[in-house]
Amino acid sequence: ATPTAIMVGTGLGASHGVLIRNAEALEKAYQVDTVLLDKTGTITKGEPAVTEFITATGTEPSALLPLLAAVERRSEHPLAAAVVRYTEQQQVQTAPGEAAEATDFVAFEGRGAGATVAGRAVLIGNRRLLEENNIMLGPELEQAAAGLLAQARTVLYASVDGQALALAGVADTVRDTSAAAIRQLQSKGLTVVMMTGDNHQTAEKVAHQVGITRFYAEVLPADKAGKVQELQAEGRVVAMVGDGINDAPALARADLGLAMGGGTDVAMEAAGITLMRSDLQGVVTAIALSRQTVRTIR
Ligand code: ADP
Ligand code: MG
Question: Which residues are catalytic?
Fold first, then answer.
């Protein structure tokens, strides 16, 4: 590629909010045949909100929420922020001087978080987190969880001192532009695949909503780069699109990494292209530009 063509290409990209790091990124975009998309924060807005909070009989939400919020205030996960916001909206009052403080906070990667609050061991996270701690749900919460999953909610499970006491249903909306952008990528002959740490049912619903048939669910952060490699082992040239810290290794491993501009700095540093408009339309623009640019040169 000639320096002039690259300059024109990157300049055009910038005017569309597509920041192309260098010539190599543009050349790679030309070769890509498979686009792997992170779900949360990439296909969806990444602004999760708690829509249901269900407690076991005998447990008052107002007694439990401050404990959960105390744990989640210490976490940097977007789902944690949703729990904190919900607790504040419910205007759960704690007596002055009694505001729950979490100690011994632990973040369990891809699973949830835990801490000691008011002398009690509190856990909140996905099903795997409870299972790993040998905590059973009980028929009442089991049924409630099934109901939430059927509505494509991300379900958070909460336990205190080894007892499962509540569930939170969390909803995150698909970005308005996602389905159309994915359709355009597919019409350019690209295979679009989705990957997420979220549960299988929610993943399937979102994939279906945006016209994706192949997806990986319940992928631990440490395994995301491995999924890129799996696709590469099929002989594919893979572009990975993501926003989070946990996407960085996959962005680096991919033939081309694209980071959502509204995401974390770590993701942007690992990527060859940054999408300033936090919108999958930018992926379509990047591919189209690379085809224009590289074609005019060859
Ligand atoms: P994603 O790929 O969707 O960004 P992550 O790998 O970050 O997901 O997390 C996977 C799952 O772990 C989440 O869907 C959630 O169920 C659980 N989880 C992680 N951190 C937390 C937390 N702080 N509070 C509650 N649940 C959490
Ligand atoms: Mg994400």
Answer: 38
